[in-house]
Amino acid sequence: MPYRVPFALWRRFGPGLSVCALIAAAAAFVAEHHGGPPFLYALLFGIALHFLVDDERASPGIELASRFVLRLGVGLLGARITAAQIVGLGWLPALLIIAVVALTITAGALAARRLRQPLTDGLLTGGAVAICGASAALAIAALLPRNERNRKFTLLTVVGVTALSTAAMIVYPAIVRALDLDARAAGIFLGGTIHDVAQVMGAGYMISPATGDVAAVVKLLRVSLLVPVVLVLSLLLRRNGTSPTTARPPLLPWFLLLFCALVAANSLHWVPAAAGTALGTLSRACLLTAIAALGIKTSFGDLRSLGWIPIALLVGETLLLAGVVLLGVWF
Hints:
Elements: H1 4-34, H2 38-48, H3 59-76, H4 83-88, H5 91-114, H6 119-132, H7 134-141, H8 148-179, H9 183-193, H10 197-207, H11 209-224, H12 226-240, H13 254-267, H14 273-296, H15 300-304, H16 309-330
């Protein structure tokens, strides 16, 4: 009798969750052994299995992975961050990063309006570029009305921001060397401009251990800004209202409360180092699983139907972010 509920849940969600987890594991394996961004692999592998979205056995688990597992992964990102890391950066670099994050998101919103696109398009791409790439895109998307267009736009944002982050990992170290930046300046530039955490680490430690250390802290500061940004966007969406079929977004979603709780616990040294590493690994696994689920729910035709504007927004915001941070570091 006590086993009936878990067994029933497994029968309902297990097949779809297993498929998504298997895709995530395959993506991680390919990335580890052959290089490349695991998020992009998970997305492409998921799109290749798009036919499963209509399978009655798999669809409930796929839906669970694309929503609950996604939010859990974002919440667990807080295990990587402590207040001491942010304070140790210094107030001038911190002010620069806060300013460029706000500028990038604002520019994205204004550009979307200028291109006669929904405001949410600019907020989504701007937040993804300004904060932490695919993870930020997924967190912000969780606030938006759940409709087909927003789902497609989120997927295209994830593809675009992951590809741009990979390109930046290759190009930006060459810029650092060409300008002969010292380790601190180089770390601030790389950590303040590259979208994904893994690519920041790759680019930073490619130059020197000191550069990598600074880049990692700057990147973590950007990740920590996910909470105030999502809170502000939540207030904005509540004020503007949502579609009649969509519930109003929560002021502070549960996964961001988890994020804040883990940051606080980590700052107070309540989280052992081994546990923090494990939670970070679990977070990445959840996000990969969620990306796989979102990929299964999308086809290349869906992405192509959105046209060139999402890519233009992402490229423009990326260039703006890089230019402003570089000027800030230079002067």
